[in-house]
Amino acid sequence: MTPADIEPSGAPAPEAAPRPLHLILIDGSGFIFRAFHALPPMTRPDGTPVNAVFGFTNMLAKLLKEHVGTHIAVIFDAGRVTFRNRLYEAYKAQRPPPPEELIPQFPLVREATTAFGVPAIELADWEADDLIAAYARAAAEAGGQVTIVSSDKDLMQLIRPGVEMLDPIKQKPIGPVEVMEKFGVTPDKMVEVQALIGDPIDNVPGVPGIGPKGAAQLINEYGDLESVLAAAAGMKPSKRRDMLIEHADKARISRELVRLREDTPMPLPIDALLQHDADRPALLAWLQQQGFRSVVSRLGLDAAAPPPAAPPPAAPVPTPAAQADLGPAAPVTPESGFGPYETVVTADALRAWVEAAVACGRVAMDTETDGLDAMRARLVGLSLATAPGKACYVPVGHEVLGAQLPLADAIAVLGPMLTDASVLKVFQNGKFDMIILSRAGFPMPAPMDDTMLISYAQEAGLHGHGMDELSQLHLGHTPISYDSVTGTGRNRIPFSQVPIERATEYAAEDADVTLRLWETLKPRLRLNGALALYEQVERRLVPVLLAMERAGVKVDADDLRRMSVDFEARMAVMEQDCHRLAGHPFNVGSPKQLGEVLFDEQKLTGGKRMKTGAWGTDSSVLQTLADQGHELPNRVLEWRQLAKLKSTYADALVNEINPETGRVHTSFAMAIASTGRLSSTDPNLQNIPIRTEEGSRIRRAFIAEPGHVLVSADYSQIELRLLAHVADLAVLKESFARGEDIHARTASEVFGVPMAGMDPMTRRRAKAINFGIIYGISGFGLARQLQITPGEAKGYIDRYFERYPGIRAYMERTKEEARIKGYVVSPFGRRCWVPGIADKNVAKRAYAERQAINAPLQGGAADIIKRAMVRLPAALLAAGLKSRMLLQVHDELLFEAPAEEAETLAGVARQVMESAAVLSVPLVVETGVGRNWAEAH
């Protein structure tokens, strides 16, 4: 099993340290309808429809496993008629009644919630969203954290410090940044925007002709709905102006309809929502009554389950599209053919498995460990599969009674096969397993295949690539869960303490599933045009990243501690400045106290109260005030940024130092980003600020070993070069060929000013447009960035497109390709799927369109640097260098080299990286050398 497929194991929480309040509120109605429309019809043995119940059950089970809070509730709508119908008779009047086959499932869904031990809450005359608002407010005011599990835009108005949303399908948090990206406003202004837009689904009238973009523009310009309506008469004559005047009353009633009532009565106190384990016998009985055998198996309830009185009918397999819409719910096919498996505890028995692997020329492998950090975890056992249904588990490090194979014997028997070129070794997330095996003393496996990367090369962005999800999607099989083997919460045990018999069932199945996935997915590579990408780039990158992770990078722990002290001292000075500017001491980290200082005491304009009555003080609010010249909000922003860097890097990096190596070993994730870009975790090195003094200070803590230096090699403006290439922009290609300052050239072309002696501000504006165009920046976004009016920013963008019409053509061509195919293709053949490109929601579709435009550029940049990385080890070896590659961050590679090799290494790296691809513009790599990363960068 790999980090992509299991949860971290942990020691039981100490009794004396109760966890702070964390309330999880689940939008039950959203779960029900998503499940009903995603899954095909299903019935339980007595003929009752249960497809929505089945989907809801899977989604709830997964949520309980992965997002554990201290308190939890599922919130339901009690009925179709609420107080809003008295405010506006037509509210939701056009909604058709629920489908006939869904009606009997409503009470069953509530039964499912109760069976899992979760409170089910509803209240007549109130909507579920109002209950969620009331509970969120109460928990936040009590100092707790709230997670609202929903992607419903109506709930986004509740987001604030301490309250966030979680998209249950994408498994991604939704906070102020995401709301701003989708709707162009902060969460506290969502009500105002929705009042203008209306909602045809719920029959909320709004103002005809005003969509999300126009509404955001008006609210950002005037502040709130009433201000917009008051200003309408003085607006330039237009249809929009006329509509605002004519439909002002409808906008006001719309605001009342969409505003959630945080004063809604709460049927249960928060204390009654304390999360606890389900009554397993009762849950088992309920699941059996519904015929949900796969859920019973995945939850580990089948060991004690008596056979059901009659088998539930086989249900159809959901289509891939339905599966993707529902998310990670289990398929509904009968499960068979997985196990029983063999436990191997003697060398002779293991030799028989090796002989079988050699005979058929391939074997699937998996490792089990006592942790998720590949550089610290200990090997507990490994599994092999030579044919579907034929797999074994080899325990070597369990801490329980039972025969095991000595590790030395396992190495002696398996070692020759691991290096046998005639035997293909198949892994799922093989980089992790190979590090574990190598650290345990096994030779490096070769040749190898990786089912995670085989899937990723074909369908990046379409779904996840963990083993469980791939098994459900392609095999119709839900593997045994890690929780069912090790337990959960306080009762969880490390895998080394799992009884060997149970470990065999779990671990051998992983190898079996991996082999079946390989047989299913590998032949599709050629059909999907991804064979070259997988074999020449992704698979070849595995040993390169493995070597980088094992090498790690040295950090100066003393410097980090000094940095932490320095940051803390600077924060203290900032706090004193904030107190001086406020006229008295207050808690700078308290949004509530800060809001009182800014808006109650200092009477600054532009403040907005949240539903709790407290003033909103998120970064957008503070930035607006700072842009107006107010010193206190600017100082608070600086304090917040420094506090984040202190906790994320200055303090955390010291704890990441491996005690065995004295270095920090990040883990490179290969199958996350839809564009093919690598990401890093533990620590995440992608988020260190690039152009700030603090970012440079953090980089100074990354140092070379004595007698060595760090060498940085960074692609210059690679995405702009790719834009010039794919959009065939003659002017930009000429400029790149001449080595001109591309931002000055753009400023000259767009603003009609000479390049010589150009004003730095003009160049900065051109630079913002150049990079903004790649990411689909709007006029509002550019206006905020350059501190100009939206109209002025839009004028800049319009002139840019007039001068470079090829960019507009490329954008439209790319969006159309995404709409037709569901994906776009990088210049090197990588498919980047864009699932939301056909979404009926305008904001979601617009976001997907921006992704589609940018994906070929980011994907192309990822392909180029990966091509260089797979070629560099051989180039360094050929040059006789002892230097080694340590990190890949964005478009930069970082090396550690003996001081005398630095100049030669820089030349080799530059030559390999600049020749990694042939474009219609030159690739340029800038190099630097230093004792630390900041000097080299």
TrEMBL record:
It is an enzyme of class 2 (transferase). Residues 341-526 form the 3'-5' exonuclease domain. Residues 18-276 form the 5'-3' exonuclease domain. Keywords: DNA damage, DNA repair, DNA replication, DNA-binding, DNA-directed DNA polymerase, Exonuclease, Hydrolase, Nuclease, Nucleotidyltransferase, Transferase. PANTHER family: DNA POLYMERASE I, DNA POLYMERASE NU. PROSITE patterns: DNA_POLYMERASE_A. Residues 304-334 are annotated as: Disordered. It comes from Rhodopila globiformis. This is DNA polymerase I. It catalyses: DNA(n) + a 2'-deoxyribonucleoside 5'-triphosphate = DNA(n+1) + diphosphate. Single-chain monomer with multiple functions. Residues 695-901 form the DNA-directed DNA polymerase family A palm domain. In addition to polymerase activity, this DNA polymerase exhibits 3'-5' and 5'-3' exonuclease activity.
